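Subject: design request, 687 residues
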């Protein structure tokens, strides 16, 4: 017995020695974060926890005591989570490290800059910028810092980078004709504040001349005039140097424009006036839509039972295991060969199969073609070249945006209905009447939530932000829609509404904006985890004096596990989402039982999503036939986690679902749907 005790003591001693050495080695590996933010005029490092890091190792690396870290990160424990973000006060004695390394230039984003403009500025391909800065494809934020690889650090096998290096080696000598040289010389002489256009040189037969207003973006102008962003760039090459500035006059190509007069002329079958811009493609679209409207009630599937062809494009990552084998292997996770990234899409597929099974029992005939996109644009293009693809009546997927645009272009060319099931990027809808977007864009979701909050009468609404461009864009959309709804409902603009720049005023500015007599609604459009965790803690402490509720945003999903649930429920948080599952609903219960029986597993949000999308659009095919575009706007059926309400962005665009739920986290720790919004409220608000 004594030998065993001595042996255990020796093992424990060796364990401590090993841990001590290992910790010292790791400590030297921890590098100070280059991400620094300012809160209440104090600077903080934002350290992202890596595998195996401990709190002791982190405060040693930053030369800050453990007590200080715990003070500025309320609720933090020694059990750190992977990718958890920690605030660490910046030591005034810290030596400033040069931001320009041998391999990268660190660029701070300025207002109005885009990936496209940066690619031109640094003469590097857009894809390379995205590869080195994951997430920037969703949008750049003013003040954010990104890495721009210097030419020698870029993979030489990349053809685009080779081309850029060759240009640099030749002293930027490019082959241009004299006309291009003259254009470049002329453009360089224009001021950045205002691009003046000589009225005598305006070519009004080819262009509309638009004076840029504040807050207008290229995406806004493309939607407004029904053109592509690249068309605007080609017509206005100076934008790549100056960016889009208020007061600037730019040319909008008329070749892609469809005016209201064209629609009236075609509908009335009158001759075109001399001012009408006519394109064969758009004329065909208008005539087709006019003819299809009359067909909504005329299609009879029983009389002409069509065998519809449906394509499903999902990133299975070439996983060869059958779904049955997946179910078997889920019983023993050690042996599971399912690629984790493919699992949500297998679940989507499982839900889709159940929808197809239900519809076949109702008499629908269809052939389902399933393709693995592997999240690869080249693979998608190869799939589209298959002979059977042009015969499809409906295409569902892919899910990732670059591939969505590729398939959308194919669908438009071949006049095939195309469904984007998960992406919230709505660029592909412009000038494409055959496209449907299930997941509303963030702008649409914000507008719908603003309808809900604009329906209140006596609330004190306080928007708290850090001044980033992404936040300001959200605030503008929310404010404009909310004030419009409030004014229409109350014949007054006298709403209690305040905006607080948190980086300037801190929590004291927020408290000064709160009301002791009215209920306060605090809107938090930030996606910054550290800021959100910090302000939720502060707002929770203010509940002793003020009545406060908050509006959270979908971007919080990525750090929801780090949110303090008690604070969220104390503050009666509302969130908006296009998805909500009522587990007490009888239809939902039946689906879950069937899913368990078939797949021996629990359905996820992707399973519900796959069922809803396939059931909705395939039943619409059965009801209206393949020419369902004008009919879909009035097609409403009961689903599991969605209530679709598709509307065109404009008369010649595709369709976007604009239906969202308002979901509430109450003080009894319930999570429930309190309203639905699709340009109107499902239930009137009672105060």
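Subject: RE: design request

Done. Sequence follows.
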């Amino acid at each position: 017995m004594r030998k065993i005790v001595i042996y255990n003591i020796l093992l424990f001693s060796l364990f401590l020695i090993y841990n001590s050495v290992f910790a010292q080695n790791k400590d030297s590996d921890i590098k100070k974060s280059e991400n620094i933010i300012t809160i209440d005029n104090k600077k903080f490092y934002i350290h992202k926890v890596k595998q195996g890091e401990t709190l002791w190792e982190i405060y040693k690396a930053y030369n800050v005591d453990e007590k200080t870290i715990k003070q500025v990160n309320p609720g933090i424990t020694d059990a750190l989570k992977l990718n958890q973000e920690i605030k660490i006060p910046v030591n005034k004695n810290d030596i400033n490290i040069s931001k320009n390394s041998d391999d990268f230039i660190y660029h701070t984003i300025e207002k109005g800059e885009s990936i496209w403009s940066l690619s031109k500025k640094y003469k590097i391909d857009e894809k390379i910028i995205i590869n080195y800065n994951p997430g920037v494809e969703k949008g750049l934020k003013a003040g954010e810092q990104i890495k721009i690889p210097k030419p020698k650090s870029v993979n030489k096998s990349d053809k685009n980078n080779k081309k850029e290096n060759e240009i640099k080696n030749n002293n930027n000598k490019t082959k241009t004709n004299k006309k291009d040289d003259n254009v470049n010389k002329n453009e360089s002489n224009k001021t950045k504040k205002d691009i003046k256009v000589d009225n005598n040189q305006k070519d009004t037969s080819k262009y509309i001349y638009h004076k840029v207003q504040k807050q207008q973006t290229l995406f806004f102008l493309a939607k407004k005039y029904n053109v592509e962003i690249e068309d605007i760039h080609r017509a206005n090459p100076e934008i790549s140097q100056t960016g889009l500035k208020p007061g600037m006059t730019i040319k909008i190509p008329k070749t892609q424009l469809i005016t209201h007069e064209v629609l009236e002329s075609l509908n009335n079958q009158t001759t075109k006036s001399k001012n009408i811009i006519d394109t064969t493609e758009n004329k065909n679209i208008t005539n087709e839509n006019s003819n299809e409207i009359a067909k909504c009630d005329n299609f009879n599937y029983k009389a002409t039972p069509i065998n519809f062809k449906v394509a499903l494009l999902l990133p299975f990552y070439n996983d060869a295991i059958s779904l049955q084998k997946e179910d078997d292997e889920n019983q023993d996770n050690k042996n599971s060969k399912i690629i984790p990234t493919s699992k949500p899409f297998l679940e989507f597929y499982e839900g889709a199969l159940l929808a197809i099974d239900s519809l076949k029992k109702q008499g629908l005939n269809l052939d389902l073609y399933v393709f693995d996109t592997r999240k690869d644009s080249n693979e998608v293009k190869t799939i589209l070249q298959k002979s059977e693809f042009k015969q499809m009546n409906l295409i569902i997927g892919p899910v990732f945006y670059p591939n969505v645009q590729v398939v959308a272009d194919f669908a438009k060319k071949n006049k095939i209905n195309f469904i984007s099931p998960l992406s919230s990027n709505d660029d592909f809808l412009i000038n494409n009447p055959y496209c449907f977007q299930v997941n509303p864009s963030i702008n649409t979701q914000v507008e719908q939530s603003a309808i809900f909050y604009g329906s209140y009468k006596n609330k004190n609404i306080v928007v708290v932000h850090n001044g980033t461009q992404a936040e300001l864009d959200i605030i503008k959309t929310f404010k404009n829609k909310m004030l419009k709804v409030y004014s229409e409902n109350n014949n007054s603009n006298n709403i209690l509404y305040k905006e607080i720049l948190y980086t300037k005023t801190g929590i004291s500015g927020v408290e000064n904006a709160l009301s002791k007599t009215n209920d306060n609604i605090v809107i938090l459009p930030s996606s910054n985890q550290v800021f959100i965790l910090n302000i939720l803690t502060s707002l929770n402490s203010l509940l002793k004096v003020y009545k406060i509720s908050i509006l959270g945003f979908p971007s919080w999903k990525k750090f929801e596990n780090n949110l303090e649930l008690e604070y969220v429920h104390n503050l009666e948080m509302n969130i908006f989402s296009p998805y909500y599952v009522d587990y007490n609903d009888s239809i939902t219960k039946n689906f879950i039982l069937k899913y368990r029986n078939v797949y021996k597993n629990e359905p996820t949000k992707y399973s519900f999503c796959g069922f809803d999308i396939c059931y909705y659009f395939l039943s619409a095919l059965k009801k209206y036939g393949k020419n369902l575009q004008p009919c879909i706007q009035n097609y409403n059926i009961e689903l599991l986690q969605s209530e679709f309400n598709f509307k065109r962005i404009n008369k010649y665009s595709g369709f976007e679902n604009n239906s969202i739920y308002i979901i509430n986290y109450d003080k009894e720790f319930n999570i429930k749907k309190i309203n639905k919004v699709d340009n109107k409220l499902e239930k009137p608000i009672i105060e």
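DSSP finds 23 helices and 21 strands in the chain.
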